[in-house]
Amino acid sequence: MAGSDLDGDEFAVTWDNRLFLNSWNCCTSLEDGKYRSTLGRMMTATKNNTFDLESANHPPMDFDTQPKADHVHTILDEHLVEHFVNFAKADTLGRISMMWLDYAAINESAACSQCLELANLHSIAVDYPKSGVPAVIPRELVMPSAAPRPHWREKKGESYHCKSTIGKLYDEIVERSTKHEEMKKYSAVAGRRFSKQGQLLCFKDKKIGTNENIFKTDVVEKLELFKEPFDEVENSEASECILFAIKQRELYEDELILLMNKYRVHSEGELLTGCISKYHRLNKRRRFDLAEEIRIQCKQLRDTFREEFLTKVVNHVLPQSVIHNNGMDHCLDCAHSAASSNRSKLVIKIDSVSHEEVFLMRNFAQKLAAAYYLVTYNLQMRKFGYEDQDVVSEGGVVSIYLKSLSQGTDGIFKDSKEKDKSHSLYSFPHLVFDVIAVGLRDRVED
């Protein structure tokens, strides 16, 4: 609980001997939860006996609260201006934190004299808004800009390989990302990209275009959205799925844009993950609460459109009498299980719907999911709206898809100007990613 003022802070406590460091405070780990203090005393760590280890802790830092600023009876504009100007000059909190990490890495310990002094300065800097006492960094603690830094800092200039916990975590992340060389062949969804170190970055580089083609015809073919021959009679169900998908995509993206405007977030990836790279100046003070609020809003959005997807599956496959007798909620659960479960678990999960109806729901859900994928990632299909005459006309959907195939591999536009008009929101098919994954797995197993 170090660093807490216990004014409502929440903690997660995990008791696991594997989490204890080999050298912990004034003790050295031996085996079976036993520790030896610097004075040679043997101690054992158990759930019922923590007093010995607690008594071996380093003494806590003795930080005297800094005196408060002089009391002023009437606060004038001059006082406010002076306070904020001084705060801007004395805002050294971030610098102190990074210096602490640098010294801890160099000395391989947070108990070095530099870290202890910086910890005291950190407390002073935190209290500055209340005390008015700035944290002045001594000149002898300032590291030269050319001095080597730990490799995980990714700073320009000379660096060294740091074996600390942060360094090991950094190395493992880089190692895992570089193993997936195959991923680099595909465009990353939601504007992400790979760095020079092979890491998949969260946020798009402004210099990289967002309209790269990521549509693969084999996904649509394996999920059997279309039937040969390619005509409207044989593919009436495909047309129904695509028209529904276009309408849902438009509604979903309208809601998504409303959220982006509401929270002043300009990246789809940032909005959906809640990992905001840059907050609007009005939201900086409540950025943590705002990130959680955004996650809740996005989850509600996904749940709403996921339910629309399952409702379409239920209404298409099941008779109204079955829906009335069992209730829509139960039928939606059945459709969810039919669409996203492994085939071996279907019969176990669904007992009030016939075996034939289960697989009909499964097949139609996969076709509908393929339509979601098609109308979002196919550069020819996604430029059309639900009310466009080319789409609603007889044979329109099939002819548009065939035209996209004839214009190049996977429907890539040859006309770059036409391509630039298409939007760059890619998350709509993620609503049914599990249905697509299960459908593709079924074809592999067959």
Summarize the structure.
The chain has 446 residues and is mainly alpha-helical.
Summary keywords:
446 residues, 18 helices, 4-stranded antiparallel β-sheet, two-stranded parallel ribbon, mainly alpha, elongated
Rounded to the nearest angstrom, the radius of gyration is 30 Å
* Strand arrangement in the largest pleated sheet: 1-2-3-4
Helix share, percent? 40-55%
Low-confidence stretches: 186-191, 202-211, 409-423
Beta strands, count: 8
Helix and strand content put the structural class at: mainly alpha
Q: Separation of termini?
A: 55 Å
Order of helices and strands: EEEEHHHHHEEHEEHHHHHHHHHHHH
Molecular shape = elongated
Secondary-structure map:
Layout: E1 23-24, E2 27-29, E3 34-37, E4 42-44, H1 51-55, H2 77-89, H3 93-107, H4 113-126, H5 128-131, E5 149-150, E6 159-160, H6 165-179, E7 193-194, E8 200-201, H7 217-222, H8 236-262, H9 268-273, H10 287-317, H11 320-326, H12 328-340, H13 346-349, H14 355-377, H15 389-392, H16 396-406, H17 416-420, H18 433-445
Parallel strand pairs: 5-6
Antiparallel strand pairs: 1-2, 2-3, 3-4, 7-8
Helix pairs in contact: 3-4, 8-10, 8-14, 10-12, 10-14, 12-14, 14-18
Walkthrough of the structure:
By secondary structure, the chain is mainly alpha-helical. It is 48% helix and 4% strand. It has a 4-stranded antiparallel beta sheet, with no helix packed on it. The radius of gyration is 30 Å and the shape is elongated.
